Amino acid sequence: MIKVGIVGAGGYAGVNLINILLRHPQVEIKWLMSEEAHKGKDICELYPHLTNIFSMKCQTLDDLDKMVGQIDLVFLALPHGIALNYVPAIIAAGKKVVDLGADYRFDNEEVFKKWYNIEHKDKKAFKMAVFGSPELFKADIKKAQLIGNPGCYPTASILGIAPLAKAGLIDLSGVMVDAKSGVSGAGRGVNLKTHYCERNDGIMAYAVTNHRHMGEIEYQVTRISGDQGTRITFVPHLVPMTRGILTTIYAKFAGTGDLAFLRKTYRDFYKDAPFVRIFDEQPCTKNVVNTNYCDISVDLNTNSNTVIVTSAIDNLIKGAAGQAVQNMNLICGFPEDEGLKNIGVYP
Amino acid sequence: MIKVGIVGAGGYAGVNLINILLRHPQVEIKWLMSEEAHKGKDICELYPHLTNIFSMKCQTLDDLDKMVGQIDLVFLALPHGIALNYVPAIIAAGKKVVDLGADYRFDNEEVFKKWYNIEHKDKKAFKMAVFGSPELFKADIKKAQLIGNPGCYPTASILGIAPLAKAGLIDLSGVMVDAKSGVSGAGRGVNLKTHYCERNDGIMAYAVTNHRHMGEIEYQVTRISGDQGTRITFVPHLVPMTRGILTTIYAKFAGTGDLAFLRKTYRDFYKDAPFVRIFDEQPCTKNVVNTNYCDISVDLNTNSNTVIVTSAIDNLIKGAAGQAVQNMNLICGFPEDEGLKNIGVYP
Amino acid sequence: MIKVGIVGAGGYAGVNLINILLRHPQVEIKWLMSEEAHKGKDICELYPHLTNIFSMKCQTLDDLDKMVGQIDLVFLALPHGIALNYVPAIIAAGKKVVDLGADYRFDNEEVFKKWYNIEHKDKKAFKMAVFGSPELFKADIKKAQLIGNPGCYPTASILGIAPLAKAGLIDLSGVMVDAKSGVSGAGRGVNLKTHYCERNDGIMAYAVTNHRHMGEIEYQVTRISGDQGTRITFVPHLVPMTRGILTTIYAKFAGTGDLAFLRKTYRDFYKDAPFVRIFDEQPCTKNVVNTNYCDISVDLNTNSNTVIVTSAIDNLIKGAAGQAVQNMNLICGFPEDEGLKNIGVYP
Amino acid sequence: MIKVGIVGAGGYAGVNLINILLRHPQVEIKWLMSEEAHKGKDICELYPHLTNIFSMKCQTLDDLDKMVGQIDLVFLALPHGIALNYVPAIIAAGKKVVDLGADYRFDNEEVFKKWYNIEHKDKKAFKMAVFGSPELFKADIKKAQLIGNPGCYPTASILGIAPLAKAGLIDLSGVMVDAKSGVSGAGRGVNLKTHYCERNDGIMAYAVTNHRHMGEIEYQVTRISGDQGTRITFVPHLVPMTRGILTTIYAKFAGTGDLAFLRKTYRDFYKDAPFVRIFDEQPCTKNVVNTNYCDISVDLNTNSNTVIVTSAIDNLIKGAAGQAVQNMNLICGFPEDEGLKNIGVYP
Fold first, then answer.
1. What residue spans define the domains of chain B?
2. pTM of the prediction?
3. For residue B76, with 0-12 CB atoms within 10 Å meaning exposed, 13-18 middle and 19 or more buried, which class applies?
């Protein structure tokens, strides 16, 4: 049994952390922190669906110093550039950290600075952080004190590409990731982009050449492939749905073999991964809603010699809160799927 | 003033033809035909939004022989493989035809057979048909008696690729078209795929290696580029929205120049096209709903040297009924945009 | 040919006014005004769907004094309590006004103050204003200089109740109006209530006992019925859709006769109303999208002796911009349906 | 530990039963039956979200005779008029039954026949059945062998009305229930009414004077109130969302007291009901998705002296599968909320 704190509890990732942790038999939520406007409010005021289930008042990061002693592990769900101001003290206090933001996803300062335009002050913690993709780096995660939880788009993208990248089966100099996200990926903040009437019944691409997650994907796929020539073209889209990310990945097939071989490659690669499911049919994001699954299909267009992978996750679960708990389970020695056995909601 | 008949009036493309033609000052709708189950029903029973605006009973193709004499031009909105049984007689009667189906989009029998698995019986009309993409083949269309109106996906895809293909600015051996369609593209027929609960709030790919529109796109882009090595990888997706297609197109940049050059290339290419709009921002399908516009953006990822094009249409207008009327205007000598000046519905 | 100005052009009602007026053969849009943040921006920056169709920079109300002379009529689409500061000067300048806000919908100061908590400073214009429901007060509208355009909910509600109220066929002391609105009724402003993820795939009631439109409905139905005991219970709901209002109205049947009689009553009442359609089937809001129609059905539950009326409008057209143009047509002597002949968008 | 069978497993209620029962520590699913077309198919083929979680082939009702001996309790999720052919044999075999259909919701043959137009052949079981609304009839349910599980609309409606009906606080001769349902209430069957493009972005009423659930509501509210003059006016609507029912209930206040009194009445009435939550704010259906909760608010319009109640459920959980398991728990002596502690999915 461990005690945890959640920073950023008022956001969509935060409340999904609460949902999951309330089902987790080995975790007690000790405190919640959120933005100034939520100070003193009960989480049920922000999220009435929790009424009669869980009640706790929100505090703010101002209280972190005096409250860090009460917990064993803290989840940080903050915009980039903020966590790095608080993590050193938490680490120094001997506590574990799962950071859902971007501040600890890179172990290369220059790459981080290139994409986030921030000089990373926390050089020590920065170096000790482990990229929390359990399907790829489980051994490192188990020994870590600080996890940089992958971004939502990178989670779906990297899991889709990894078996090909690892096995050298594609031309890594030209990998296209066409990603489609539900609107919850933009958070609970209000702006014209998340206005119902602007999103409903329409689809559009955005940030087509410079989305920060492109850097994260390219950096990690390069680690996996070992090929410095790895080039990811990443285009995100906003889809009129609440949850879910679907990525469709294209790359020239550089191997030999047929579709059956490719499918076997994926099944073998993920044979020990409890949260990856390989399908012959292309997955629908609806099948993973409220679960920690990443559903993947691989196909081969023989006319153009192109491998096509589609991967589907719930951006708030496998793409955020669920994967964070999966990482917590690993660093705390709990079963990897504890608290994450939820069955999907269908339809 | 011409008289027209509409075959397939009960479908979504058919009713949008009616909507447009009722606004067209030079057209009288003389008769409607639909499936057997609609025989004798007024179109307002099928589509109550037309009440008090337009009333006409549906007939069936059985009546074609005796009714073809009443009209100057017929629109055919039928599943593939049916129109080709009726077109020869209409042509022989000296009438004009705009076929919204697939039967007359290829002038190569083998290619048609490869994708549709049908031996084309109507070899004469097949050869005289013109592919009805006015932005690309206007001169031919003006002289045509029989138009093969482009498919919805091909319309958005081909208009997106054409400026690059024509100018030799991309590596044509690896063009990826990631296409996202609203559900109306699947027609008004009922099946699990179009069930509200199966489509709402989720996205999926389908037919990832063998969608028939891939053949149409590759065939036409090959015509435009003149490069027999043209290879299109086409993956369609079903998006939870009613109308709209967005394509995101990826290809290696094979030219020199920068983004400004690419944008100028597009603006120049479409400078005389009243229904193509080039944007710096990526278009949203919402901006073209109920219009004949194709909105296009072009971008350049310099890291991976990849050109990224997004194009947005209303699949039922520019992707079907609107383009069909545009073709009718051209073959009848009317102004190209007659009946098509509708302003989009926003939000 | 008249010249008009639009204040509040950047909102959803404003841009729909533009859409309609661009189709109107007798109107020239002379200027647009919007909020401070839009100053100097072209309307196409705010609404890209207008690109290549209409271009005009936005000004602000600060410019009204010097620009009022350029126009014959001004449309005001502003939050309540603002128009009344500007209308006296416009009226004094001899210009016509169609106010889409609430400031001129009541001719009783106390009732206005009760619902809006504002002391109406503009007593003269207040008294000369005509409630712009053309189906009910056409003669007055034709002579008016200043129109208080009905609210969106009141439009659907009053048109649904009027035939019964006028004929004394229901118990007016207990009329229930259960109203369902698309999210565009809340405007383009951003807040948690209009956030996509909070509205998508869910429905809720709000302001169940004190929505201001309840006052407007009760006031107008009282005028129509002449019965001071008229009591309207009004409950609005937010529905996951962009456009449309459906009201379901319940009242005890106080007359004699059957369903056929009720239907005839409605058809007779609206026999000269070009924008009201009476159906035996219950209308769907989809059938009126982008039109000025109000579709109505009336039914009789003989077990409980209750009349049930459903009425459907597009909240942005018949509930705002369309009805405003209908009023403009009447006060300017144009055909009532000029610019409003748009056919609905289906599906 | 008990063994159960599910008839109608291929439908939306059926698959939600599976989801819930897989979380239930005291239940083993022994077999599944579905329609002929599903015979021999694994449930994962019908519902891929269950992949790697649960695998079982579907059988049909033809196999019931030989399989009824394997189970202790059977859930029937069938269209009305079918269960009554099979229940007598199951009862005779000493098994428990929770029937999610309408065949055992009435203990009055005439009322059943009036609404369903079926002569009930199974008179014995018909009489022994208990209406499975645990908040109202828990004592009876605990002793029952056969449960008629309430309909989805009746569940939300009756729970909303019951406190008022029981306490005589409203004029029961005029209760209006305006109900709004997600499309999953219409089942997984395909027809134009459930076509995505016909439902998306629009709302409509249907069956406004004769929906069968009106009979069920009136019958049960009459039981609760003891007032034979009880008259329910029920109007259902189809809302563009997948799950959820919201009812808005209107009745003349016939008591004394204020809003605080009414709220206290509700809180007292449901003080022992683990799945009813009383709110001051009006509930949104999103807050109960995938839970067994019924969220209720009560309000008082003092101008019209009308009580307004809104109640929200997940139609597939509290309105079907969840309530069925709640009933199973009661008749089997398990904790009432076993398997039903799921936290809602938000957003």
1. 2-150+318-332, 152-315
2. 0.98
3. buried
Q: How far apart are CA D5 and CA C330, in angstroms?
A: 68
CATH number, span B2-150+318-332? 3.40.50.720
Beta strands in A101-257 (DSSP E): 130-131, 146-148, 175-181, 204-205, 232-238, 245-252
Residue D345 has pLDDT above 90, yes or no: yes
B284 and chain A in contact, CB less than 8 A: yes
Position A329: which residue type? Answer: N
Residues sharing a CB contact under 8 Å with residue C279, sequence separation 6 or more, in sequence order: B48, B51, C295, C296, C297
What chain B residue is nearest to D184 in terms of C-alpha separation? Answer: B197
Residue-wise pLDDT for D264-306, tens only, equals 999 999 999 999 999 999 999 999 999 999 999 999 999 999 9
Cβ–Cβ below 8 Å for B240 and D199: no
In sequence order, what are the residues at sequence separation of 6 or more whose Cβ sits closer than 8 angstroms to the Cβ of residue D297?
C208, D278, D279, D280, D281, D282, D283, D309, D310, D311
CA-CA distance, B343 to C53, in Å (whole number)?
A: 8
Nearest CB partner across the interface for A203, out of B180, B304, B308:
B180
User: A152-315 falls under which CATH superfamily?
Assistant: Dihydrodipicolinate Reductase; domain 2 (3.30.360.10)
For residue D78, give both structure tokens: 């069938």
Question: What are D5-62's pLDDT values in tens digits?
Answer: 999 999 999 999 999 999 999 999 999 999 999 999 999 999 999 999 999 999 999 9
User: Is the pLDDT at B100 greater than 90, yes or no?
Assistant: yes
Contact A233, B309 (CB under 8 A): no
pLDDT digits (tens, 9 = 90+) for C191-242: 999 999 999 999 999 999 999 999 999 999 999 999 999 999 999 999 999 9
Q: How far apart are CA D207 and CA C281, in angstroms?
A: 9
Cα B213 to Cα A285, B111, B156, B223, C230: the distances in Å are: 24, 12, 11, 15, 61
Beta partners for residue C279, in sequence order: C297
Q: Which residues of B touch A239 (CB under 8 A)?
A: 180, 203, 239-240
Q: D36: which residues sit within 8 A by CB, 6+ positions away?
A: D60
d(CA C60, CA A102) in angstroms, rounded, equals 41
Reduced to 3 states (helix: H, G, I; strand: E, B; else coil), residue D199 is helix
Q: Which residues of D are catalytic?
A: 152
Tokens of C60: 């602000």
